[in-house]
Amino acid sequence: MPELPEVETYRRFIEETSLHQPIMEVEVQEPRRQLQVDLDEFRKTLMGHSFTGTHRLGKQLFLFTDHGAVVTMHFGMTGDVAYYKDEAETPRFARAVFIFQNGFRLAFIDSRKFGRLGLTTSVEAFQKQKKLGPDALTITAEQLAKGLAKKKGLLKSLLLDQRITPGVGNWIADEVLFQARLHPERRADALTPEEIDRLATSIRRVLETAVNAEAIYRDFPAHYLIHAREWDERPSGGAQDAHLHCPHCQTKIEKDYVGGRATYFCPQCQV
């Protein structure tokens, strides 16, 4: 599933390829499934206009246009984008295609069809409508403390709440808690101000690392928990066990379920 790091990579790709080019045609394969607005309205809003900029909030991507309307993109479980010239190069699972005046095309790809395109008036309006919190990539300790205030739930589950930290997915939450040395079942209302500050710093650093690595997990630092998760989810055998120990203390990484989600942690470092 495309997480915040992947969506940030898509955003930068669109910035480099698809801005300031008049849109001559918009094709949507299954508008009733892929669009959150009427197809005619979507086409009328975009044709003859250009994308002028982008913004990302959590896993949600926004494309600004030259007349104020904003396209929203959510990539579901398998979403991606592509930029190409010839129709013959159209990706197999292109669900929507923006055709530019210069002949190039921007495709919204989604093999599982869980992604969605829509329109909004502004990022702020969309954020308010969906009740999304501040973007996890830039969240401050003050913002995190406000989001967690009076919450008695478990940290792992609360980090996955997009009203608190939009953009934090399952593996990211595990990595953040591992780097902050906080147990996934720690109650939010038991955190000290120092621990909240440490947690906010960990959220930003983990996401910055993932974005800089363009979400290629094998390029993450050796002390990251993601390497244990990757090996555990591969077929068993061989040197698998060598990758299931904490890089800090060599204790075996444990796997449990918190809020129904597979959760990895070190029982020694994350007491």
UniProtKB/TrEMBL annotation:
Domain FPG-type: 241-271
Reactions mediated catalytically: Hydrolysis of DNA containing ring-opened 7-methylguanine residues, releasing 2,6-diamino-4-hydroxy-5-(N-methyl)formamidopyrimidine; 2'-deoxyribonucleotide-(2'-deoxyribose 5'-phosphate)-2'-deoxyribonucleotide-DNA = a 3'-end 2'-deoxyribonucleotide-(2,3-dehydro-2,3-deoxyribose 5'-phosphate)-DNA + a 5'-end 5'-phospho-2'-deoxyribonucleoside-DNA + H(+)
Formamidopyrimidine-DNA glycosylase catalytic domain sequence ranges: 2-115
Source taxon at top rank: Bacteria
Cofactor(s) this protein requires: Zn(2+)
Cross-referenced PANTHER family: FORMAMIDOPYRIMIDINE-DNA GLYCOSYLASE (PTHR22993:SF9)
NCBIfam families listed in its UniProt record: fpg
Annotated protein name in UniProt: Formamidopyrimidine-DNA glycosylase
Lineage: Bacteria, Pseudomonadati, Bacteroidota, Cytophagia, Cytophagales
